[in-house]
Design a protein that fits this description.
It is a single chain. With 269 residues, the protein is mostly helical. The chain contains 11 helices and no strands. Helix 4 (68-89) packs across helix 8. The longest helix has 28 residues, at 95-122.
């Protein structure tokens, strides 16, 4: 495996330089505006960006060391972050957006309580605590008028992530086909992540039909396409919220995303 070739071919240093530039711009804006922690739209975007930058750096390391499937499984998270941002930012600033963000943040407490209830039931076997957590979950359901079982996307009044994708794509205009291509790669990423017959047999970068444990020199473009495409929108959204000019970074990230797409479709060596 040729790590120097991977670094050059997949423009990993250029991607890292863009991440550093984004961090500098955002940090300077936060200091200048003296931004405080809150459950508002800006903080939602900041936490999303922070998680996304860490994840992309993990993707870069896995790509550089020759594990494109591992990188792809992580890029799945960037696509999900992108869809969440696109869905929430699709709401005009209003009481509706405020309530959506409130419910999004309330999901943190719901997930916490759900796991504490499971722990009380199966680990500590504490029926008193289990009942306490059940009641607290019920309070959340009553406050936000949630009927029946709480689904993963209850805060958006949607049944699934696929439903949210469809909502976002419907509003994407000229970018619909691009986003559907992202969604197709996302589905491949799900195969890389989850245990299944197909997921255990196919490998990005491998031409062997038998078990192949790598590492590999190719296939990295798949995860890098999905991650860079998702980051374009996330960064643009937070730059707009901070009143920063996003055209330059959008152009740089967009050019990288197009480059990875061309490699993916064998338009570049």
């Amino acid at each position: 495996m040729d790590q120097e070739m991977i670094k050059v071919k997949y423009k990993l240093c250029e991607l890292e330089e863009i991440l550093l530039e984004i961090e500098t711009v955002v940090q300077d804006a936060l200091r200048r505006e003296n931004i405080k922690t809150a459950n508002d739209n800006l903080n939602f975007l900041l936490y999303t960006l922070g998680k996304s930058i860490v994840t992309i750096r993990e993707i870069i390391i896995l790509c550089w060391t020759g594990y494109p499937d591992g990188a792809l499984s992580l890029s799945r998270n960037i696509f999900e972050q992108f869809i969440h941002v696109a869905y929430i930012e699709g709401h005009e600033k209003s009481e509706e957006l405020d309530l959506l963000l409130e419910k999004y943040n309330a999901d943190y407490n719901y997930q916490r309580l759900k796991n504490l209830k499971w722990q009380a039931k199966y680990i500590s076997q504490n029926t008193e605590k289990e009942e306490q957590y059940r009641n607290e979950i019920q309070d959340i359901k009553q406050k936000y008028n949630v009927k029946g079982k709480i689904r993963d996307y209850w805060w958006a009044k949607l049944n699934s992530f696929s439903d949210m994708c469809d909502k976002v794509v419907q509003q994407a205009g000229d970018f619909r086909i691009w986003m559907r291509n992202m969604q197709l790669v996302y589905k491949r990423a799900c195969l890389a992540l989850h245990s299944s017959s197909m997921g255990n047999k196919i490998r990005l970068g491998s031409n062997l039909s038998d078990i192949d444990e790598g590492p590999w020199n190719k296939g990295q473009e798949v995860s890098l396409f999905l991650a860079s495409s998702g980051l374009v929108f996330i960064v643009s959204a937070i730059y707009k919220e901070l009143n920063e000019n996003y055209e330059d970074v959008q152009s740089k990230l967009g050019a990288l995303a197009c480059y990875y797409w061309d490699v993916l479709n064998k338009k570049k060596d």
